[in-house]
User: Fold this.
Amino acid sequence: MHPVFDSALVWFRRDLRSTDHAALYHALKNARKVWCAFVFDTDILDELPRFDRRVDFIHRSVIELDQALEALGQQHPLAQLTSSAASGATTGLIVRHGSAKVEIPKLAAQLGVQAVYANHDDEPAALERDAFVRGPLSNIGVALFTSKDHVIFERNEVLTGNDSPYGVFTPYKNAWLKKIDPFYVKPYPVERFSAQFATIPAKVHPIGQARVPSLKALGFEEVGSLKIPAGMSGAQALLDDFLHRIDRYDETRNFPGVKGPSYLSTHLRFGTVSIRQLAGLAWERAKAGSSGAQTWLSELIWRDFYHQILFHHPHVVGQAYKREYDLIKWAHGAHAEANFKAWCEGQTGYPLVDAAMRQLNETGYMHNRLRMVVASFLIKDLGIDWRRGEAYFAEKLLDFDLAANNGGWQWAASSGCDAQPWFRIFNPINQSEKFDPQGKFIRRYVPELAALPDQALHAPWLARPADLASTDDVVIGRDYPKPLVMHDVARQETLDRYAVVKTVTDKDIQKLARKKAPRKTAAKKKSANST
Assistant:
């Protein structure tokens, strides 16, 4: 039980909402006065391009969070009576632009708080940051309390019978479902303690000055129209829409040409929606017999699974979960570089792969089925190291989450926990014919092929000359690239490349285990973009 403090500070990170918020609830419950803060962390932002969709999404969400916190602070009668409205002081969010390692202890000292509250973040860079911040806070007599908020079950909450972390999803899921009960999805009643919000003193933020700096002031450019609406209101709008479709999720989720997903992954990433709210809705609907809700709940459980893998096995940042897979020799040299560039730009000659990559580059989003397809193609058709694809996704995805991104790429590479066997290789043509049979998605993002008949869209280099001639003389190799590789040939090369894992010895694995991960991979560098 936390002691009762005179005042406390809530440090928002990847949890940009004012409702059902663990750290905010604990602070309001245990302190007489509570302030809230967010830091646009230059330790992260300085490494990002000036045009970054995630920063724009965060910025919009922070503006809405500030407004919501101000409204909460003013809704309680006692707050209205004791506020400094006459002087212009108000509640809301204190926003800083700088290193969080410096700004949070500095702000705690300025406010004279006795405690700082935040929610857990188990990414290695975030754990390192929090460990650092504890030092200067402790030096001024301020405690740092952190709480679970980003997942339903974390760290050591779901373990095997011998108290070790799960490495296979299905038994983890079964244990997760056995453990879940209403307590774990119950929302934190933040509103009940709204009288504890304190007005922001002028010494901390000048009265009348905008609390959230502009994107330009932060050194970034506005994106314009985001494909995913930002903030808590954006999350709620997407959830309301999805609840009309959730019962068919299992039937529609694999087809990129139809509206199947929830599109809530970005909101889960930045905490503009509560995982307890989503899991609770899915769980109740699944118990009522909805197969769509059961499938969606399973996807949420995968998210928990990957987060506990990252916590227990931080070496996965930069190294294979299964150590022996680091012995694989990946394609390199000028030819591999050219292939990687073509993959990034959506110019591989395989229409579904190219459409998916172009969707990513144009919108910052990629359909989940297609993430598996393009990952498999890069790794097992082009023979390129999975870490390069992981890093590219880390740079481009609006919903980038280190645990899920790493888990997904290692699944595709067969190097991860519960991954597909290394000898199972997606055929990009079969995937295209099965999941975009009429070419709706391909035509949207590869317009140069839009006039081709459906049957010719999936492998246009095999199209009949008459089909190509009837579409304004589309020439493969001129209007659309020839395939970089032939899948059957590439498949055999992959089987040969992966054969090394069959001969690995225990001594090899022990040697690999002692080998440290690269000091800073591209994926790690981008991993903490919650600012």
Q: What stands out?
A: Residues 53-75 form the longest helix (23 residues). Strands lie at 5-12, 31-41, 93-98, 115-119, 143-147. The radius of gyration is 25 Å.
